[in-house]
């Protein structure tokens, strides 16, 4: 997967009417391509948990903004939240673009709890590696 261009990052921000945090913009523009090949058992990072392709990011953010779906305990997806991935079971990794909840967050669709799992994208990768090792999938 190629890194996103500046115009693609601007397209995301414009399409969803938000300003992505600096740490996330910088990651999309200049991430180490080795993160894209680390296998978590269900596939390399970037396919689900940390999406890095423009089409995938647009798709997931359009899906969570569907007015017929409910998140966070019978509430629609908050406009300032930007989904960056999912766990395959309806739970999402996301960023609060207003910075009220800094870092990478995880919303559990079963309990509706929100947990901060990392300070940034590299921290999320470390978190996912640790989770995969705990489950014995690496």
Which helices and strands, and how do they pair?
Blueprint: H1 6-16, H2 22-30, H3 54-64, E1 81-86, E2 92-96, E3 104-107, E4 114-118, H4 121-135
Antiparallel strand pairs: 1-2, 2-3, 3-4
Helix pairs in contact: 1-3
Structural class: alpha+beta
Low-pLDDT ranges: none
Radius of gyration: 14 Å
**Number of helical elements:** 4
Helix % is: 25-40%
**CATH topology annotation:** SMI1/KNR4-like
How many domain units?
A: 1
User: Mind summarizing the main beta sheet?
Assistant: 4 strands, antiparallel
Tell me the CATH architecture: 3-Layer(aba) Sandwich
Average of the residue pLDDT scores: 83
As a percent range, the share of strand residues is: 5-15%
Order of helices and strands: HHHEEEEH
> How many individual β-strands?
4
Strand order of the largest sheet: 1-2-3-4
CATH class descriptor name: Alpha Beta
Globally, the shape reads globular
Distance between the termini: 21 Å
Primary descriptors:
single chain, 138 residues, alpha+beta, SMI1/KNR4-like, four-stranded antiparallel β-sheet
Description:
- The chain has a four-stranded antiparallel β-sheet.
- It contains four helices and four strands; from the N terminus they run αααββββα.
- The protein has helices spanning 6-16, 22-30, 54-64, 121-135; strands at residues 81-86, 92-96, 104-107, 114-118.
- The chain has a single domain (6-135), classed as SMI1/KNR4-like (3-Layer(aba) Sandwich), CATH 3.40.1580.
- The two termini are 21 Å apart.
- A hairpin with a 6-residue loop joins strand 3 (104-107) and strand 4 (114-118).
- Helix 1 packs parallel to helix 3 (54-64).
- With 138 residues, it is an alpha+beta fold.
